[in-house]
Design brief:
Elements: E1 11-15, E2 19-24, E3 41-44, E4 47-54, E5 59-65, E6 72-78, E7 83-89, E8 95-101, H1 113-116, H2 140-143, H3 154-165, H4 177-180, H5 229-232, H6 234-238, H7 247-255, H8 258-268, H9 275-287, H10 295-301, H11 309-318, H12 329-332, H13 358-362, H14 394-404, H15 435-446, H16 451-455
Parallel strand pairs: 2-4
Antiparallel strand pairs: 1-2, 3-8, 4-7, 5-6, 5-8
The structure holds heme C (2 copies).
């Protein structure tokens, strides 16, 4: 690696034998364009990878030369959503050079839907995903939290998808929802604590978003402070750690993008960009993260003949059909979505409570240490675990439920040794699982993974990053 040029304050340019990485920083809500920063790289009849990071989404002119004196324009490209990658192949022999050149007078590239985004000609089907039979009847039917005024439409969720992946939603255009809710991790964050737009983090783990549509209690976040999914989506945008944006600034910024006015018009019938529409579209997209194609789902349909003996043992333990005592997992993580219907719970992680959870919002002592019971769908992909990400793997979670539940005044009854009516509550349950039983529970939890969700193009990043 050789540094040929020291960049000006606005750009960082590094040179490799076959790759050129150009980082143009842009701070604040009005990105400062880098002034005429040059990049240079050499390749001998081979391929060169160009990579531009530019939160300001400016246009760049790529030029090439064989003698560093005369330069020919290769293309004038625009960065969309912060980064651009392109492979150039040079068939001529000898040295060849490329540079990326910024020209304020040539910021002319369009920001149209076709230029900026890679959307299918006909919108993906979000409105009517194919669901297993158990989703069409109670209890799951009644768990659906889609409100009457925000039914998911194909074009509404398409807009939501673009918003979800767009770094413009953060004040310095560096963080999108997907920075912390990553598709490969079932829309959770592999980091214990997500990092926001200015590099700092909050005290909780970003949980996965699979099947949020079927959280009957509706309330979202670990402490359930957002009454609906529609309300929830506006929290991270304004959160001073996460995205640091104001809603007024956001609507102005989006309204200035031609492709957004098109997407809003398609979704809502007029091009107006409003806070309410942003919330509706984001909620539609989150409700489209439907996971129904796991090994477990196949098992429901064929009486679990597709399961190994170990997975079936784990299933019987999970549903309390065997064990001494039978594990109570399904009492809280119930139905084929592995969520409770109506209760808030404390699962005995700690006492005193480091994080008051729901009690911190309601002020009720009896709700200190209570947290949302998240769905266990795709749980193998959403490590680390619990509101504070304290467990790095599922074996640790199972060992916690086996031997580590901490007594506290708000510990939920299913996790206590039962006592006769009128008697004081029993001590925390100890499951006495053997090593084989613990491994079987983990094997069962692994059957809840749905690889379709993590690769589904309709849930993926729609921006045009060059190649
Ligand atoms: C900087 C990281 C970060 C960003 C950006 C972010 N989130 Fe989150 N998200 C989190 C964390 C952390 C939590 C859990 C916080 C809590 O419960 O207090 C969370 C929780 C959620 C939940 C609650 C899920 C549930 O089951 O209760 C939803 C839904 C969600 N985020 C959607 C979004 C959307 C939509 C965006 C973009 C507008 C977004 N997030 C941006 C980190 C982030
Ligand atoms: C009394 C209700 C209750 C029971 C019974 C219960 N859980 Fe939980 N579970 C919770 C709550 C509440 C949380 C979230 C706690 C937190 O983060 O503070 C949770 C979290 C989890 C998580 C982590 C989820 C995530 O996204 O980080 C896993 C995995 C889990 N439970 C598995 C199990 C298994 C396996 C069993 C049976 C051995 C079980 N649970 C029994 C209430 C329960």
């Amino acid at each position: 690696m050789k540094t040929i040029l020291k960049p000006n304050r606005a750009a960082v340019v590094t040179f490799f034998a076959v790759a050129l990485n150009l980082t143009a920083s842009a701070a604040g809500s009005a990105p400062v364009p880098p002034s005429a920063s040059l990049g240079l790289a050499q390749t001998n009849g081979g391929a060169m990878n160009l990579s531009i990071s530019n939160a300001g989404d400016q246009s760049w002119i790529i030029q090439s030369s064989s003698d560093l004196t005369s330069w020919a324009e290769v293309e004038n490209l625009r960065v969309y959503n912060g980064s651009y990658h392109r492979n150039y192949t040079n068939t001529a022999s000898g040295s060849w050079f490329y540079r990326a050149y910024y020209d304020a007078a040539r910021q002319t590239n369009a920001s149209t839907t076709t230029e900026a985004l890679r959307l299918p000609a006909t919108a993906f089907n979000y409105a009517a995903p194919v669901l297993p039979p158990s989703f069409a009847v109670n209890p799951i039917l009644a768990e659906d939290n889609t409100p009457a005024n925000n039914a998911t439409t194909d074009l509404g969720a398409t807009l939501g998808r673009v918003l979800f992946y767009d770094q413009r939603l953060s004040t310095n255009q560096t963080i999108s929802c997907a920075s912390c809710h990553q598709q490969t991790h079932a829309f959770s964050d592999p980091r214990r604590f997500s990092v926001g737009f200015n590099g700092s983090n909050g005290p909780r783990h970003a949980m996965g978003l699979s099947n949020a549509r079927w959280y009957q209690r509706q309330h979202f976040f670990w402490d359930e402070r957002a009454a609906t999914l529609e309300e929830q989506t506006l929290h991270p945008i304004q959160n001073p750690i996460e995205m640091g944006m104001t809603l007024d600034a956001l609507t102005l910024r989006l309204a200035a993008e031609p492709f957004y006015t098109n997407l809003f018009a398609a979704a809502f019938g007029s091009p107006d960009v409003t806070t309410n529409r942003i919330a509706l579209a984001l909620a539609q997209f989150v409700r489209s993260m439907v996971s129904t194609q796991s090994k477990y789902d196949a098992g429901v349909a064929n009486n679990f003949t597709n399961f190994t003996a170990q997975e079936n043992l784990g299933r019987q333990l999970f549903f309390g059909q065997t064990g001494n005592p039978p594990p109570p997992c399904a009492i809280c993580h119930g139905t084929d979505n592995f969520v409770p219907t109506t209760t808030l719970n404390n699962n005995g992680l700690e006492f005193p409570y480091v994080d008051p959870g729901v009690g911190g919002i309601t002020g009720l002592l009896a709700q200190n240490g209570l947290f949302k019971v998240p769905s266990l769908r795709n749980i193998a992909l959403t490590a680390p675990y619990m509101h504070d990400g304290r467990f790095t793997n599922l074996a640790q979670v199972v060992e916690f439920y086996n031997s580590g539940i901490v007594d506290n005044p708000n510990l939920s009854p299913p996790l206590r040794v039962p006592t006769p009516p009128g008697q004081p509550p029993g001590p925390p349950l100890r499951l006495n699982l053997t090593a084989d039983q613990k491994a079987a529970l983990v094997a069962f939890l692994n059957t809840l993974t749905d690889t379709n969700l993590v690769t589904d193009p309709k849930l993926s990043d729609p921006f045009n990053y060059g190649n």
